[in-house]
Structure formats: C-alpha cells, structure tokens
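Form 12-C: Joint structure prediction
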Amino acid sequence: MHGRPRKVYKPEEEAASAAKAAKLRALQSQFMSYHHNKIYTKEAVDLSTKLLEINPEAYTAWNYRKLAVEDKLSRIESDPDLVKTILDEELSVVESALKQNFKSYGAWHHRKWVLSKGHSSIGNELRLLDKFQKLDTRNFHAWNYRRFVVELTNRSEQDELQYTDVMIGSDFSNYSAWHNRSVLLSSLLARKVDGFLPNKKIPDEYNLVHDAIFTDEDDQSGWFYHLWLLDQTVNVETPLLTSSWPSHGSCINLSAGCLNDSFSEPGSFPLIIYFNQAVGGVSSSTVTVDTELKGNEDLVWEPVSKKNSQVSCVWVARLKYMSSEPCFRKEYKVKVRIGDSPGIVSSRGCNFSAPYEFIFTAHVHDTLEESQGGIVSWTDGFDIWDAESKDLNSLVNLDQSNAQLDSKWRQEAIAEEIDLFRELPDSKIGKLTLARLLMAKAMISDAAVKGVHYNEILDLYKDLMVLDSSHYQYYKDEHSVALLRKVTSSTEDLSGRLFRYRNMNNSVCLRLNNLSLSRIASVEKLLFVQMLDLSHNELHSTEGLEAMQLLSCLNLSHNRIRSFSALDSLRHLNQLRVLNVSHNHIGEHSVDTTRYLCSSPLSNSECTRDEVGRQMPSLVTKYWDAYFVLRDLNLKQLDITGNAIAGDEFRSFVLQVVPKLVWIDGKKLES
Amino acid sequence: MGDLPPYPPLDPTTYDLIIVGTGVSESILAAAASSSGSSVLHLDPNPFYGSHFASLSLPDLTTFLHSNSLPPPPPPPPPPSHDPSDFLSVDLVNRSLYSSVEITTFESSILDDERYSRRFNVDLCGPRVLFCADESINLMLKSGSNNYVEFKSVDASFVGGDSSGELRSVPDSRAAIFRDKSLGLQEKNLLMKFFKVVQAHLAAASSTEIDETAVTITDEDMESPFVEFLAKMCLPPKIKSIILYGIAMLDYDQDNAETCGNLLKTKEGVARLALYITSIGRFSNALGALIYPIYGQGEIPQAFCRRAAVKGCIYVLRMPITALLLDKETGDYKGVRLATGQEIFSQKLILDPCITVGLESMSSLTDQQKETVRVLVPKAISSKERVARGICIIRSSVKADVSNALVVYPPKSLFPEQLAAIRVLQLGSGLAVCPADMHVLYLSTVCDNDDQGKAALLSAMSTLIKPQVPENLQSESVVENDPAEAKPTVLWRALYVQELVKGEFGGSISSASSPDGNLNYNEIVKSAVELYEQLIGGEELFKEEKTPEEENDAGAENED
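Section 2 - Result
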C-alpha cells in the first residue's frame, strides 16, 4: 500500500514482537528438523502451515510444502478427488498467507506452482484477484499473477483490456493498470487483431491518456503511458537500413599505392551498413555484394559492438580492391543488395523485410601517395571543403527508413500531440514531452520539413536545464542529440564544418568543436568522416563513434573524459592513428565510478601474459583500463597531456603498450 | 386525532425537560439531554416518529400534509378538571406549516394495490441527503445513534439545464474529472488545479506546522465573493456553475447580486467545498460524497430517539398537548396539559415549530406571561423565504443505469426567471423507499411565494418526466413511440410549499427548527447544538460516549 507513514513502536509493542520472534524461532527449528529428515506427516505439514501463517516470507517452508505435496501425490493413485483435496489445501494456505502479507513473493510463487500442477480451480483465481486488487489496486504481485492466470485460462486480451479501463477509471494513478494496458495492447497490435490497427487504436489511446495528463499533470502514470505511446508511434518494429558507406550513387577514390596505410589493411576498404536498430544475421548470404573487384566472394561481416554480441546497428565488411594483378586507373561498380534472402533479424525477432540495394563506384588510382609521417596538427593544413551541396547530399543521403514507414497516421498523431501540448501550461514534464514530440516529428517527417523545430527543441531543453537542475545531465544529453541532429540535417550547416586536410591526402575533416556536446549522436550521417574534431565539448564518453570506421584522427581534447574505459568504443576503429585526449579528467578521480563498476579484471590474478600469450607490460594492473584500450589501437600519435594520469610513469607504460607510437604529446619519439 | 386511545396516566409526572415533536432537532436534544442525565419526556401528537422529518406511506403522507395545511381545527374543549387547577392554563394550537398542497394520483393502483401502497417510505422533508463528513454524521457517531441506521451511497450527481438537455455528471473527484466525457482537456486541467488549490489551502489550514511553501488562498481572496474567486481561477462559466450549485449546493444566482440576497464569500464557499471533498472517501464503502439512510430520512430522528430511550427518555406517541401551565403568581412556566387531561411538569419545554399559543388565549395574558411564552407567539414571519417541495413516484429512472442520483438545475438554467437552484433527488427501491420498478423523485427550491416555487418545480418535472394527464382523462390513443419519451412516467405527485421556521431559545420554553431548504442537516444540527448549549449550559454533547468501546462501535456505521 502507498503513502503510509512508518509507525514507531512503543516499548510494550517491542516486547510483544520479541516474544513473537522467540515463538517463531522455536517453530522454525522444529520445522527445519522435519524438513531435513524429510518427514511429511500430517503433523509436520501442519507445523509448516502454522509457520507460514505467522511468517509468509519463510520460503524454505514453501519449498518444503512443495516436496510434501509431491510426496503425497506420489502415494495416491491419481484419484482426482484426492488430488483436488491436496491442492485445495495448498491454495487455502497461500490465501491466508497472502492475507497476512500481500506482497509475499514465496506465497505468490507457491500459488503459481499449485496451479501449474493442473489444478482446475482457475475460475476462482480471478475472483480472488479481484478481491486483492480492490484492496491494493497497484500491487504488482497481483497484476503479475493476473497475467499468469489470464494466460492459463485463455481469457481474451480484450477482456483484460476492459479490466484496465475499469481500474484506470477508478484511479488513473494506477501505474500497474496502465502498464498492463501497454502489455496487452502491444500484443493485440502486434497480432493485428480486428479493431487493433495501430493507425486507429493508437490515436484512441492518446485521447485516453490526455484525460489523465490534463486532469492531473503532476501524476506520472499518464506520462509514462504517453511516452510508451510515443514510442509506438515513432518506432517501427521491422529493422530498416538507415545509412551506408559508401552511400548510394557515390564515388570513392582508392589508391593503388600499397604504401598508403590510411586503411589499416592495405588494398581493402570498409563497407559499412547502419540499421535503425540492432540486428543479427548479417552475412555474405544475406548481403550480396556484386563487383568486378576480385577476391570478395566470401565477405566477412562483423558487428561493431561490444565483445561477443552478435547483434549490432552497425556492420562492417572489408572489401578488397588489390588483386595480384594490379589494374590501374580503373573504375569499378559495386552493387550491394541487403535482405534478398531472409536472415537479418532484429533483437526483438523482426525480420528485415524490405530488401534494399545501393550502388557506388570505386576509382582505383595508381598514384603512389606518400605516407604521411608528419605530426597531425589540428590547427594548420585545413582547407574549407568547397563541396557542392549535392556531393554532400550524396554523402549523408539516407532515405531508406522514412520511405518504409506507413507514416501518414504517425505524422498526424504527432502533429496533434504537438498542438495539444503547446496548450498545456508550463510544467517541466510538459516541456519535456513537447521537446520529445518535436524531435519525433523531425525524425519521422520528410526531409523538407526538417530543421524547422530544432531551435524550439534546443530552447526547451535549455529551459529544462534551468528549471530542473537535478536532471541537468539528462537534458544536456538530449540537447546534444538535438543539436547534432540539427547540424547533420542541413547540408548548409554541415558544409560549414567540413574541411580537407592537405597533409593527409585531403582527408575529410569535420569540426564539431565548442558546441558543449555531452553526448554523441547522428553518427549514421557521418560515416564518411576521416578526421573528427570534438575538442572543447563536455563529452564523458566516445560511445557512438565506433560506427565511424573511416576515422583516422580524433581530437577529444578539452572534454570530460574521466578514464580510458570511457574510450572503449574506439577499439573498433581499426584505422585510428591519431588520438588527442589532452586536457581531460583521466586519472583525476581516485574513485572512478566507471572503474568501480568494472573492477580490474587483472587485479586478482598474477598472470603476466595476455590471452594470446604476449608478455604484459609492467604497471598493467595500475593502468589496466588504458591497457585494454590502447593495445587494440595502432596509434602513431597520442596526446595525453593535461590529464592527471599523464607523467613519466604513464608515458613509459604507453610506450610499452603502443610500440608503433611516433608522436607523444607533440614530441617525436626516438626510435 | 380526536379519537385517542385511552392512555394510563403517565408516571412520573415531573421531568427536567419535556419535548414535544420528534423532528431532527427535538430528537437530538432528547438524546443529548438524556445522555447528560436529565429526565426527559418526549411526546409526539402523531402516531409515528419524525414529525416534519418523517418518512411515510403515501396515504399517511397525504393525510399529514392535508391536516397540517388546513386552518387549525378549533381547540377541543378543555377537559373537565378533576380538581380546580392551581395554574394558569394557556391553550395551544397547531399552526399549519404547509400551504398550496396539491396531490395528484395518475395511476390509482399505486394507492389501491396492497402490493404498493404500504411499500413506500416517502420523506416529508425531501430532497435531503447526508454528506459523509457532515455534522449530522459526526453527531450520530458521537452519540452512538449510528447503530440504528444504515446508509447507502447516492450513486451519481448531475447538473442539468444546459442547452443540450443532457444531464452532466458533476466531476467532483479526480477520477470523475478523468472519466468525464463532456469536459475539454483544458477544462479538466483548470478544474483539477482549482481543487488542488482548495485542498492545499485546507491542508495548510489544518496543519499545525506552518509550511511557507504551501499555496494558500490569500485573506483578501477569502473575503471576496466566491464567484470572483472562481473567475480569478480562470474557470469557465459552465464549470463555475457546477461548482456553485452542484458541489457547494448554493440556492441563489451568485452572478446576480440583486436577486441573490446572500452573495457567498470565498471562505464560505471553500468551507462548502471542504465538506464535499472531505466527504469523498471518508468511508471506504461509500462511492461518493453523499449517502442516504435506508428506509428514508425518518430513520434519522428515530435513531436519536432510540438512543434517548436507551438513556432513559420516556416516549409517548399519539399524545398532543393542549395547554401550557403557567404559575398564576409569577407567570413562570410550570408544565403542560396532555390531551388526556393529565398535567405534567418540567423545568423546561421544547416545542415543535408549529405549536403556537391560540390567539384568544393571548389577549388574556399579562406582559410577564407573554414574555414566558415569547417564542410561541405567532409573529409576522421575518423572512418571507419558503421552500417548495415536490414528490413524484415514477416508473423507470430519469437517467439510464442510475438508480440513486442527485440532479441540480442552477438558477436560470430552466427558464430565465428561475430564481434559485432546483434540486432533485431520485431514489430507488434499493433504499427500501418504494417498490422495485419505481423511483421516488424529490424536488425542492427556495421561493418567495407559492406560485413561483411550484412553477419552478413543475418546470423541472417536465424536463425530467413524461407529461402525464390524470387517469380519467387518458385515452387509448396515447402515442408511445414519441422519440423524446425515454423519460419516465409519473404515477403519483405531491406539491407543497413549506414555511421555514428557525428554532429559538426562550429560557424555559424553546422551539425547534422546521426542515430547512438545504440538502443536508448541517444548519438544523447546528441550531440544535446551540439550543442544547443554551438549555443545559456549556456541557459537551454526548461527551461520555467517547469511550474506546463506543468508538469501535462507530466503525460499524455505513455498512451497505
């Protein structure tokens, strides 16, 4: 039950409770001896009944009863009447235990167990539940059990939906009822039951939740449900392709010169495909690559995600373009078809069902480009990239997802919500919802209308950061996401931030510095970027950057990185050569929360070799997080100055871990 | 009433207090005085408990209304005294409380048929309900008289008279606002905000700690008219009207200071809302704010009488008193003469509001004697205010799926000249007030004169029920399939106008209140408590009832 103050016990009450405890202990020890000796006599079972009446939390007693029931059932000749008597007895014990404590996990579990024995009293269960749910309408045990019983009885989901109507009608603060409603509707909508088509039902649900929200905007139940509805409106179940590199219709230049190491494996380049949700099953059989480039028959697709996970939004394959016989000055067409044969499946189990094809051209040049051995400066050597906006468009072009959506009702629903919540007098949650709605609108509407509301979204989050400082970081993150979407949604905005870096084959450099970003987003539109300047922001982590497989130089100076663990996603960037993490907070916090959560995997072991048998450097236990990140990177240049961790000791450690390093903190190393 | 059964003489003949009439005030006083140890004789000339608050069968109700509206019969000749009285005897007469009584039977079976006629418990003082948190409930719990009554919830309340002709349910709680289909989202928002302000104000007022952050209503606002405060809270007119007439239960048009004699201040309005709000949820088994006693309102005075009887009060029904006995020398009150001729003495006397001194006796009284009987002297009624009441027995319900419901028509909602709100209470057989397929409809409105009041009630009736012609005029050709006629038909109807008399303390002789024009008993209870304090002194009502055992008993209240 809710909102009941804790009672302070008087001395006499404490005495009574001590006496009760003593009695209980005696009972318990007697019970345990029965249990250990596997005695299931009537006397012994009655004792457990008594114990459970006093203390329904005694889960051992519940387990004992299960054994006793099994024992009894094994003795009788499956006489249905006797079975019924035995099970009825159990149900009544549970019922009295529940009267004692409504929220006893053991009791509810025991009841489920009894029912799963095929007991036929199921009809009574809903009646009992109605009684319990009247007493405490939000009790999640009862709601859980209800779902269990409903499943057993094959009661229709429509009937259950009606029950949530009644419960919500009598108290719309009943979060459990709203939750159950969302569970039921998810199922009904997914099965496309008659009368439950999303384009009709979701708008109805919006109307219902409006009544709750507008009646009492301070009550969170309605807002939770609204958020769920918004999710249903914006998100499609089936996975869709969001973007790729190279993009459709684009033309990439490759150098035949084998000395160029701007791609980690000479003579190959990454092919990146980016889905709107994590999928598995991307392989050479589900993605066909049709090209004259030789040696690409059995491409290996790898998920760009945490270790061992076989699902990811981002998948990469390396396409070879150097065969044994070099062909100079040649153009190759590459055709990629995704989803021709089934197999790409989202983590929720939905198939990628809309096959998609994209074609790009690869130019292989015979110019032997010099390897750039020089230090990469983030200040000199950049030219404004006077790219035609149509070139840019083709680089960031992504149209797959919107075309697939049956977006009309979604757009209408969102537009209605936006109009409505503009009316709701200022409240924090009202502002937040409006910001989310505007963002949803930007996400599902056509490219032409984009950008219109970004400033409004940004202003809303700015207001919220002031109004509700306890959730500052959340609003800050959302603000960053919106800002990045704004930047990436218009070619005008983006082209102003794009440069060519002369000293490295005119690599494409994107500058997103000084934007007070706290989170990275919209990476799917930035797959073409080779150099990224994120300096002077408020980033805590590089999460999201792992998709940018072409990235060779990354500037993270003047951010809020607190440890090397926060750079973990960089391990996926095979081509990263230059990393600047100067002027962050690495090593500053003695109790690093990140470190605390994943305590050193090396701390308890004395081993000095890693899993492939390489000798581990000294100090590895001290700098284990740096070790795990740096050993997987082929860095040539690292800037670490301005962090608490920087110093001679760490420097010598780095040199052991990254033997190929040429530049550290702007100084060339003597080889 | 001339044919009295022979009564044995009463014994004892001397009491601390004699009370005549068993209305709500009188019964509360009887119970309170008995509980505090006074010896009380409680008389009623009628053969039933409750006087003007009684619930009666249709024939009894008809008889009662007629006998209390005709000019009083000439006083019976004083019975021959056995021995010459030592006292000056002042004859008492009954003043009629009711006027313009009009009773129509549309379907005679309702009276003829044995199955029906005795199954009605119809209130004289309707429409009337109790708020779960009101003073009468508190007093019943305190006195223990709650043990003798059971209540049921009034299922719904509506405000009628908007242009659509639909009855709008009163959104009186969070859940009701949420469910309401007729309110817009902004309206829901504003209304709930308003309730929250009121609740926060009440919480701050009742809390002992001073919470600086609590939003309270400013003192300035509290003194301003309630309508202005509602406007300040941005409430649109239709919501204002729901709050004023459907929740605060006001009578007069608050937007019109001229016709409204009494423009409500915000503090009074907030107090009325507080009563409503605290009523909701006071008893877990009550659905809303309003409850009604099973078997009718007559159960309320009867419950207090039973309590009084338990505490030693002596009851005699069918016992009118004919005269006051005053001391010949001093003119002080001494006692009363019963219709049996027996003389009974007491320190103090409380009389039903319709008992007065006969005019012919008045002329012979000295000034001092007049002073003693001051409260009984018929005077020009200070307030011309009256209340028109109507009772309809109908078949089926005014609102589908709802049996017990309150409907309020705010001023001017039915016709432009409508002076005051009209309240309508429909009760069903679940409350044991009528046979299963029928409902009893009570209507009331305050009015300046009989015609005005009755016109208002008839207007409300015509919107709620099918127009009906008396049985003898009915023809076979009545077309039943008129689309508008999902309305119930009326079987029996009573219309009457009641005078409003307030109880008064007059030293040794006091008078009790008549039923008032309100929906609940708050005013009546308040005046009874005042009268008790003046009679008995500062002693608290039913104070010894507050033992823990009795408190536990109180929990049994309102089992439905």
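Section 3 - Comments
The longest helix of chain B spans residues 185-206. The longest strand of chain B covers residues 489-499.
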